[in-house]
Amino acid sequence: MAQFNLGVLLERTGRCDEAITAYQAADHLYRRISDQHHRAMALLQLAACLRTAGRHDEAATAHRRAEILAHVSGNGLVEALARGAMSLDEDTQDGGAEGPGKARGGPR
């Protein structure tokens, strides 16, 4: 839990590269102790920092993993947040310079 909280603090102070490392450490710890609920949360936060850092493919992968783990652990909120963020990943990967929902011809 300490690594996750450190990641949140670093992210909030604009130190996303360091937050990425903290979230990765949290993910590793949660994986070792088979805590899928908290692992999904760590991956969701990791993905947000990766997107901020311009690492869109890695962010999309982290969002997909967060969604799957959240679903398996019954964490509906994180699952929904990951799904919503995945649509942003798709817009970014599709060259969605016009903004969310515009890359494919309008609102979804």
Work out the helicity level.
over 70%
The major pleated sheet works out as: none
The whole-number mean of residue pLDDT values reads 85
End-to-end Cα distance: 37 Å
Task: Quote the beta fraction.
Answer: under 5%
Unreliable spans: 97-108
Give the topology string: H per helix, E per strand.
HHHHH
- The class by helix and strand makeup works out as mainly alpha
**What global shape is seen?**
globular
User: Number of DSSP helices?
Assistant: 5
- Based on CA atoms alone, the radius of gyration comes out at 14 Å
Give an account of the 3D structure.
- This protein has 108 residues and is mainly α.
- Helix content is 75%, strand content 0%.
- The chain has five helices and no strands.
- Helix 1 packs parallel to helix 3, helix 2 packs antiparallel against helix 3 and helix 4 packs antiparallel against helix 5.
- The longest helix is centred in the middle third of the chain and has 18 residues.
- The protein is globular and about 35 Å long.
- 37% of the residues are buried.
Task: Give the helices and strands, then pairings.
Layout: H1 2-12, H2 16-32, H3 36-52, H4 56-73, H5 76-93
Helix pairs in contact: 1-2, 1-3, 2-3, 3-4, 3-5, 4-5
Features:
5 helices, mainly alpha, 75% helix, 0% strand, 108 residues
